[in-house]
Design goal:
The structure holds two protein chains of two kinds. Chain A is of the alpha+beta class. Chain A is built from twelve helices and eleven strands. In chain A, α1 (2-18) packs parallel to α4, α2 packs antiparallel against α4 (51-91) and α5 crosses α11 (318-326). The chains are: A alpha+beta, B alpha+beta. At the A-B interface, α5, α7, β3, β5 and α9 of A face α2, α8, α11, α13 and α14 of B.
């Protein structure tokens, strides 16, 4: 019996290794190890043997059972692995098929640029104030030391309208926000205003609506040297050129006395404009910003005593800054809502540069 | 304002080059827009003599010239018919750039004969239109002379942009004074001639409008011979872009640019009786020198003779009284007109003239008599004649101010230490008078010069001193940190930050931010207004931009339409900007057009629906910090441009937060939009102030439980009614309710629908027991039943 059993066990394990389906494996398992299986039945016979034989036969049978079980287990694993490989082959996709991952929208370059300007001055303690776009003539002109017949008032190409029975203007600059703020809040002040402004002019370099950002600082000691330092730092930081040439040029604005226009250096090579002093140091100047010390009349108009307080103001065109920094060639395209333009010049909502 | 280098040097003794002058002008605040230097373009061309011409062997029209350049004799091939031996002309040598060619010239062979240069015509050098041959210059000109010297055009022209406060710099003399103050040279004061008239002026002067014209001086000059101006005067005017007319006219023009002193010269024989300065009468007719007819009003300032207007004071002369070459007697006018009056007259008649641009900025009142005397001198020099005594009316207005400057103001405002002596020196050089006896070491008293209208307060003097001292010399200072806790580092209020956030949010949802005009055409304004109030511009730039927009949607719809026309079928935009109803309010509006998704291998085409913008809106509101459940959503009350059955309005208490939905088919038709359009409008000012703090977080460690229910309700019951009723059962424990199924079918009965909801319950302090769950379930079922009549589907 010993011999036969061991012989037939090795036959069985060989047979098992040749099986190709889980069903057949199960059949063999039942034949050998099931309740009525061959080995199980032989185990039941053990009780009839004397203790000595029972021991040796028991060992043999246990060994046989383990051999069969492990052969079954091995073959099962082999078959499962083969089946999985088969399944994986069947499940293969053409991963080159295009997918629709949705399209990300864009933030307008005007928004991005205003963010960047606010970001810079925000760190210096300036904070944004707001005001209406339909303004009184007083806030837009008179309070800013631009009297009725002043040429500066005529040159601004103002839009007029009647609102609530009163003659109003579409603000020609963001400066009325300065007036509103100074009338409401008391110095020291560091504020910004940003938004739409309107002038009746439409050609290659003008649109009837555009955007400005401006700043105002009022305290007791801030002077023209601070204004210079602050604006130079801003221009270099905004355009990210650490040695950008910045020049202050005397100019005239009714609302500042000690007024300046600010130019930055640029070079032009084969029609391409590059900011900075260029390789040779020979560069031209590009006007980017107006600024100055707040005119005492403006402070007076806002019930701030100019013998006690002083400060500076500055203002810039947002589109111009955006065009220079981001290489946008044509002002008029800012307001055309061309989806392709927005996709190209707009900013990802996740972009941060301020 | 244009002037030439040589003109400037009449008043400025300087060795500075034109480039250096330009730099100083910029530093002084006189922005140089351009310097046109003939030397740069034409400096290479010299006068030569043709010694001999022989015919070209292979070309009938060409000649071979032997040309003397003064240094050598060259062979030049030339095709000009006027080339002849003994002629003085102009040669371009190899390497030079002839303006009409634009490239360096090379030695070349013309029909086999070498030519070592090119004889030039005035057209080829950009100096004339005609081209009848090469330059044929005066024979007296020496060989080797620079062409620009031979022509007397070796004189750079400056074009300076003068700010509105500096009317005085519309005269060369005052530009020279600024430069001298800057140390660029010595200012040369003009001599002031004075004529004792030999007879009283036969034309008398009388001022009626003393406000418009406080001061008027006239002079009769008899027996003049008008003629073309002499060469120097013509060249001076041509160089700055003026057209010489005749000596009498050119002299007054010249002084306008030279001294910023406009004058006028009448043909005295065309003046009837005497001159009077008065308000024009209503509808009085006047023909200007520009050949245009004007009908005046009492706002205009007329200079009249006994028959009517002969000039518009300070703005333009009259055609009928103007001088011609036949003029024999003239009446010369120098006056001072009120700047505001001149500005408004000029503006109301849209007349731009050199006189207006000077008078409206302010002309030196003290230059009235010196101006007329200088004009007299020039007229007598060029045209002869005998001058009368001056006819004077009114008095010179006083426009001078006395200003006390505390010297420490320079440091206080300018941030720079400037010694009082230096400050005094600068102001004196600019023409201010230093009043020694009234000044102290700490403050100076100064009287402003008559030609400056922009100096009245100490700060004005600070600017003058800094400007001449040099802005570039002022040391920069670092702005001290704000020691007052004004704002967070980003400079934005919580609400401004939220607005910025929703821009990113909407861009993240696939919408492009756009910016459209704040105005639109009246028809569109009417289609998008809640009532008949319209806010219209008095002076729109065009009719389709005449109204302030009552909504952002028409512009957004048009923007989509334009993109559709370019073949971009899906245009999705948002804009944050004002609307005017007529109250100005900040709105965030969005639009989706075309299709939600096109057909792909994965899915069929997906149509847009109101739910797509509803999703945008609720994402926005939730990001704002609003609990979506607290927002009341109602149907059928959105404005008329929405589809009544496919739109909703959102309220929080009494405040309308916004609208969303599909655009009304009629509106789409009017706006010529071919696709479906779904839109939203959110009124940012009606959103609550964003919360800056958040409650503390309490996370439940207990297992949440989900229960499904299906309620059969009448079809007209709004889904929210069921959701709200269910939520009300346990508002604190129910953390979400998802509507997973909407079913209609005959099995439910007529006009009934079934709504399947999944309720998620999160226990707070212990796991739910079965009894608790049953009790909550019952409460949900009862609530829904009592609120909507819905019953649990069997």
């Amino acid at each position: 019996m010993d011999y036969h059993l061991s012989l037939s066990i090795s036959e069985i394990t060989i047979k098992i290794a040749a099986l190709q389906s889980l069903e057949e494996l199960e059949q063999i398992r039942l034949q050998e190890l099931g309740k009525q299986g061959r080995i199980s039945l032989l185990m039941k016979e053990l009780g009839k043997l004397d203790p000595e034989d029972r021991k040796t036969q028991g060992q043999i049978l246990n060994q046989a059972r383990e051999q069969v079980a492990s052969a079954l287990e091995d073959q099962k694993r082999i078959l499962e692995r083969a089946a999985l490989s088969q399944r994986l082959i069947q499940e293969t996709l053409d991963i080159t098929l295009p997918v629709n991952y949705g399209s990300l929208g864009r933030v307008h370059p005007v928004t991005q640029t205003i963010d960047e300007v606010i970001g810079f001055f925000g760190r210096l303690g300036f904070s944004l104030r707001e005001g209406p776009e339909i303004e009184t003539e007083y806030n837009n002109f008179s309070a800013l030391n631009i009297p009725d017949h002043h040429p500066a008032r005529q040159e601004m190409d103002t839009f007029y309208l009647t609102h609530e029975g009163e003659r109003k203007v579409l603000r020609t600059h963001t400066s009325p926000v300065q007036i509103r703020t100074m009338l409401k809040e008391k110095p020291p002040l560091r504020i910004l205003a940003a938004g739409r402004v309107y002038r009746s002019d439409w050609d290659q370099t003008h649109t009837p609506m555009f955007h400005q950002v401006e700043g105002l600082l009022v305290d007791k000691d801030t002077h023209f040297g601070h204004l210079k330092g602050c604006i130079i730092e801003f221009c270099r930081s905004f355009f990210d050129i650490k040695d950008l040439p910045v020049r202050f040029r005397p100019s005239y604005f009714p609302f500042t006395e000690v007024s300046a226009e600010v130019d930055i250096g640029y070079t032009r090579h084969q029609g391409t404009l590059t900011l900075g002093h260029g390789k040779t140091g020979q560069h031209g100047w590009l006007e980017v910003l107006g600024c100055g010390m707040v005119h005492p009349n403006v402070l007076n108009n806002c019930e701030i005593d100019p013998s006690e307080f002083q400060g500076f103001a500055f203002g810039m065109g947002v589109e111009r800054f955006a065009m220079l920094k981001y290489g946008i060639p044509d002002l008029r395209t800012f307001f055309e809502s061309d989806s392709r333009w927005l996709a190209h010049y707009g900013f990802s909502p996740f972009f941060r540069n301020s | 304002m244009k002037f030439t280098y040589s003109w400037l040097k009449r008043y400025l003794d300087t060795t500075a080059s034109p480039q250096e002058i330009a730099q100083h002008l910029v530093d002084l605040g006189l922005e140089v827009e351009d310097i046109h230097d003939p030397q740069e373009i034409l400096g290479a061309f010299k006068v030569v003599e043709i010694l001999e011409t022989t015919p070209h062997p292979d070309a009938d029209r060409l000649k071979i010239c032997r040309v003397n350049t003064g240094e050598s004799v060259l062979q030049i091939v030339c095709g000009a018919p006027n080339a002849r031996a003994g002629m003085k002309s102009v040669l371009a040598l190899p390497g030079s750039i002839v303006p009409a060619i634009g490239q360096p010239l090379k030695v070349g062979k013309i029909r086999g004969v070498e030519s070592f240069g090119m004889m030039c015509s005035s057209r080829e050098l950009g100096l004339g239109e005609e081209d009848e041959g090469i330059f044929d210059l005066e024979n007296t000109i020496l060989v080797g002379t620079l062409l620009i010297d031979a022509l007397g055009i070796n004189d750079p022209v400056f074009d300076v942009s003068v700010t509105p406060n500096r009317g005085d710099c519309l005269g060369v003399i005052n530009i020279a004074r600024d430069l001298a103050a800057k140390g660029v040279g010595r200012f040369i004061s003009p001599s002031s001639p004075s004529f004792q008239g030999s007879f009283p002026s036969p034309i008398q002067v009388n001022i009626q409008d003393k406000e418009g014209c406080p001061y008027y001086v006239g002079r009769y000059i008899k027996g003049v011979t008008n003629r073309p101006s002499p060469d120097w005067l013509q060249k001076a005017l041509i160089a700055i872009g003026q057209t010489p007319i005749s000596a009498l006219v050119d002299i007054t023009n010249y002084l306008s640019f030279d001294r910023a002193r406009p004058l006028h010269v009448f043909d005295a024989d065309k003046i009837k009786g005497s001159i009077c300065i008065r308000q024009a009468q209503e509808a009085e007719a006047f023909k200007g020198l520009n050949d245009k007819e004007y009908f005046l009003t009492s706002a205009h300032l007329a200079i009249v003779d006994d028959q009517g207007p002969v000039a518009l004071g300070g703005v333009i002369g009259g055609l009928e009284s103007s001088c011609t070459l036949e003029t024999q007697n003239v009446f010369l006018e120098a006056a001072w007109f009120d700047p505001i009056r001149i500005a408004s007259v000029g503006r109301s008649l849209s007349i731009l003239s050199d006189a207006r641009s000077r008078f409206e900025r302010g002309v030196d009142p003290a230059s009235t008599i010196p101006g007329i005397e200088e004009a007299t001198r020039l007229i007598q020099e060029i045209c002869g004649g005998e001058a009368s005594e001056l006819a004077i009316a009114g008095a010179i207005p006083n426009n001078q101010h006395e200003i006390t400057l505390p010297y420490d103001l320079l440091q206080q405002r300018g941030g720079v230490e400037i010694a009082p002596e230096q400050a005094i020196g600068i102001l004196k050089a600019l023409g201010l008078q230093y009043l020694t006896e009234r000044s102290t070491p700490a403050k100076g008293v100064f009287r402003t010069p008559t030609w400056r209208f922009d100096l009245s307060i100490p700060e004005d003097l600070v600017e003058e001193i800094l400007r001449v001292y040099g802005y570039d010399q002022i040391p920069t200072a670092e702005l001290p940190h704000a020691d007052y806790g004004l704002s967070p580092a980003h400079g934005l209020s919580p609400k401004q930050l939220k607005v910025r956030e929703i821009k990113s949010l909407l861009a993240g949802r696939g919408l492009q931010e756009t910016i459209t005009w704040s105005f639109l055409g009246e028809e569109q304004a009417n289609d998008f207004s809640l009532d008949s109030t319209r806010l219209t511009l008095d002076n729109p730039i065009s009719q389709d931009l005449a109204c302030m927009r009552p909504s952002l949607l028409p512009n957004l719809l048009q923007a989509c339409g334009r993109n559709h026309n370019r073949g971009i079928e899906t245009a999705n935009f948002f804009e944050v900007g004002p609307q005017f109803l007529p109250k100005e309010t900040l709105v965030c509006a969005g639009i989706r057009t075309g299709f939600k998704e096109f057909k792909t291998w994965q899915n069929d085409i997906k149509e847009l629906s109101a739910f797509d913008v509803k999703a945008d809106v609720f994402a926005l509101l939730e990001n704002w910090g609003l609990n979506p459940d607290s927002v009341q959503l109602s149907q059928g009350d959105a404005p008329a441009w929405y589809h009544p059955g496919r739109s909703g309005s959102l309220k929080l208490g009494h405040k309308v937060l916004g609208y969303f939905g599909e655009i009304h088919p009629s509106t789409l038709h009017t706006m010529d939009i071919k696709t479906k359009a779904v839109c939203f409008e959110i009124f940012i000012e009606n959103l609550p102030e964003p919360k800056s703090s958040r409650p503390s977080l309490a996370l439940s460690p207990y297992q949440p439980v989900e229960r499904d229910y299906a309620f059969v309700v009448p079809e007209q019951v709004a889904a929210t009614a069921v959701l709200k009723a269910a939520k009300k059962a346990e508002p604190n424990l129910i953390t979400s309710i998802v509507l997973f199924d909407v079913f209609k079918g005959p099995s439910l009965g007529e006009n009934m629908k079934s709504l399947g909801i999944k309720v998620r319950l999160e226990p707070k302090d212990k796991t739910f027991t079965e009894e608790e769950l049953t009790s909550i379930s019952n409460k949900i079922i009862q609530n829904v039943q009592s609120a909507t009549g819905g019953v649990l589907r069997q």
